[in-house]
Amino acid sequence: MLALHAQASVINEEYQAWKTVGDHGYILGMPQTINRYWSGITTGYWPDYETSIHQIKAFVDTINLNKTLDLKHSIAGGLSMGGDLAIRLALTGTIPVCGFIAVSPGGPWMNEPEKWKPLIDDVRRHDIKGIIIRGKEDQAIPRKYTQTLTNMFNNSSIPCQFLEYPKLGHWYPPNFADIIANFINNIE
To answer: How confident is the model at residue 161, as a pLDDT?
Structure first.
């Protein structure tokens, strides 16, 4: 499981949401972007897509130096910009993941879901699955865009579930561990 942090976040803040993947036989990898800024605490930000994907691939290549990981059964996930990047990794095959979990995905293309269409149409692996999660109180990305993206996946034969939580903002849902467990079971 490759878990990608949100913009202006750090791994420590998000580790609690992802730590249960080990209970399901997965190894958890949480790369921290090398791009940093300081605003009272040091946080990381994902720059443009190309640089971010390069950093993530370098992280995966480093932890898989001995080629012991089964990347074809890996899952990419993340919050906000991390969720956006998880979707991009699944669609491009840069890392051959079999699925993605995008929590409140938010990146440069999320307000323009039609920009995803060429990537969705060109997906090399049609055996990927996804889940997009958002809070109804989330003001970062309007619901219509995440719903449109989910519909685009499903209309292109890429199964993607959409979950919305009524009292949740731009963060992980309280039952996220159960969502991860169900997703892993459905992937296998």
So the answer is: 97
